[in-house]
Amino acid sequence: MGTYAAWVAAQAGAPPVPLVKRPWLHGFARRWHYDSIEPSVPAGMAAFLRRVRPNHSSPSDPGKLRVLHCIGGLIPGGAERQLCNFVVGAHRRGLELRVLTLRESVDDDAHYADLLQRAGIPPFVAGANFNTDFVRKLRARPGTLELLNRLPVFFLPYTVDILGELLIDPPDLVHAWLDHNNIWAGLAALLAGVPHIVLSTRNVNPNHFPYLAHPLFKPWYQLLASFPHVQFINNSHPGAEDYAAWLDLKPECFRVVHNGVDFDTVVHPKPDAVQAFRDEIRLPSDAPLVAGVFRLSEEKQPMVFFEVVRRAMSRVRNLHAVVAGVGPCEGQLREAIAQYGLADRFRLLGRRKDVEVVMAAATAVLLTSRQEGTPNVLLEAQWLGCPVVSTKAGGAADAVSHGRTGLLFEVGDLDGLTEALLSLVLDRNGRERLSQAAPGFIAERFGLDRMVEETLAVYRQALHPYSTADVKGVR
């Protein structure tokens, strides 16, 4: 619990709310509790929020907005990478941006902290330091303290700590990322009277992921969508359509902004670094290598990845594989590797910061996800000239030009994925053809400048919300 949430809890005589590092995993472990949660917005809360007026006027030029980005932490995830890419790219254009996290930047939560620090945008933690002006500003908003103490426990302590930061140093626009943060920061921004709010959704709606789903997501997202100064982003057309259908919103409610690759930071590693990595994993000089870079969670289907690679290994005896990533399926994957006696050819690398080196050392990159937004790994691998094989999950179909820059197959087509992987491993000319075409494709469609400009276009739209309010109705 941060300092602002602790103060609010003390006013109500409530015990401190424990800070859970991964609240979605905590919720998954206690899903029985969800049955007792009423999936609705408490009575009177929506009416209260509609009475809150913007706390200040904002500049008419999006390039002059003071923008606060909010995310849980800076773990090695796709959304976290894209937040950092955008913030760094927009900062180069002179925008004033800050990054607020809900957890301290240590261990996994510090994965991208150095990237922001080097750009001169140090992240800070909600509620880490108490500013006594918070009490005055909160009491100047009649009814707000009482409302905070009526919030479902799902919102505590994060919404209160975010609210504290917004009251102390009000931004012109809050841009939140990922479902939990969208709800917490979205509500805090409404209570603080932030003039403009942008919520970035990724992939498909959280009901597809048991460890993410929460019964309060839908009603609160629908409430947020009813405010004309709240805008939504998704990073793929399939994802946007899925969220819109889930929330009973018109598809136009979601602006699609595909991921962007920062070509200044995703660079070809030096040959010595690549050779050092191959030596590290004891890879024979003539051995082909398949690489996976993904979270070891169910939607990424790591066991499908294993099965495809296992089949390929049975036909190419010197084929090796590595996976960079961590997650709840790691134990199951390790058991399968041991069961088939592949420990000397199939290595789990854990969390890596040098994924460019891993991909540059690989003969091919394989992704077997069931659900995807726009996978950073496919974009970055192609930019580095590494051939890719992937399922057509979500935005992956847009991220690869099938037959020209990589190979795509339907989710569940293990035979197709296996044969495609073998074709790349065994056909040098085919690999080189894909490798030569891929960087140009990525530069043309997935550059950082394009992503920054499209996001700024959403900010421009946010400055004139009532011109687009008609798209916020139900379908």
UniProtKB/TrEMBL annotation:
Q: Name one GO molecular function term.
A: glycosyltransferase activity
Q: Which residues form the Glycosyltransferase subfamily 4-like N-terminal domain?
A: 76-264
Q: Where is the Glycosyl transferase family domain?
A: 277-438
- Per the record, a Pfam family? Glycos_transf_1
Source domain of life? Bacteria
The cross-references to PANTHER family, in alphabetical order and at most eight, read: GLYCOSYLTRANSFERASE
Q: What is this protein called?
A: Glycosyltransferase
What organism is recorded for this protein? Nitrospira japonica
